[in-house]
Amino acid sequence: MVKRKNKIEFKTYPEVLESLDNHNNHLLLGNGFNGSLGVKTDYRSIFEKMKCDYKGYNDLTDVIEDAKYDLEKVIGILKSQLKEGGGQKSFLDKYINAKIKFDFMKATHEILKEQIKNVYQEKNEEVYLLFKNFQNYFTLNYDSFLYLLLMKFKKDDTSKEKDDAIAIQHTFKFQEIDMNDESDAYKKISEAHNDGIVITDVNGLKQTRNLNRLPKRRFEDEVKDHYKEEFSSKSIQKAVNLLWRKKEEREKGNKLLYANDGFLFDKDEFIYKSQEVQNIFFLHGAFHLYQKNEKVYKITQKTDKALYERLEEILENEGEEIVCVFTDTNKDVQIKKNKYLTNACEKLATLHGKMVIIGISLSDNDSHIFENIRKSRIDAIYIASKKSNMKKDYDRAVEVFKGKDVMLFDRDTISYG
Fold first, then answer.
1. Is the pTM of this model over 0.70?
2. Which of 177, 176, 218 is nearest to 196 (CA)?
């Protein structure tokens, strides 16, 4: 039995990293993690976005505030206000669930789409350094933030190979897509870098040199002069900066982390098949997962429109359901009905080593998660906190993780390095 410490340890995040072994480290994330990277997917921000998209949610302000912006509680309050019995209650139950869930998912995805750009443009290297320390990744968030961060590339999205894995790689591809949506500057400048030449005339002697051999400043001057009528100076500079970051990464050596979300390509869809190598787990499900005829599938997003259309189809189809634990009571009951969620929770109980927890409030709503961690052979748990909440957070953590060695670290020292 681990005894309560007389003096609470309050480490820095770099000290936590030094305490981790080379293997058997696990990461558990909550909404606070999104916020730490500048992605505001807290309930308040999402509801404010929902109000922008549909003014009718302003009429629910009192209900939303009474529920402290907790979506699950909002749905519970609305359903409890319906008259008992009758077809009207059945209809409104389904409508409330489908309408609010869809609007919540749509608003969250719009926030992610806009704000995740800042992560992979400004904090990309740091996020890689965070993830490289762990073997398993768990999240309590419904949103697809972790999915978007980790699931960058497949070897081949149409591959039928059973060992097809997902490579966690820097997000250059996303940046290229964003730039080419604005203009073709990156595409053309990249092609010029790879294939172009520059001709100089020195005292009547012409010399040719490949553009890819020029230093950055000289290359930027050349393309600005060549494309000044076609692209803005800002677009050219952004394209050159990305091009050089990619060159620097190649020179340092390609950094890849391998991860597996448990889905394999089967015919025309990705279907969930529990595997020993799975190490990405959405403990309460996620917007991109749905169940049909006892099987769980993954929505592969091609465009935003395609994603929204598919979500609407699933929510309106009684034979399909988004794998997302949207309930104000008995989460464990809903989890036990779904193979994906059951496997994810049971995985926690099989772990050994150390766990780092970021952005989780340790509320009673997630007691089923903490119970499985208590069952595991995890021997040390590091929890992000802030100095002003240190004693309260420590007391709660000791209560939640009885028998485990619990330590706090300063969330403000997280550098992802």
1. no
2. 218
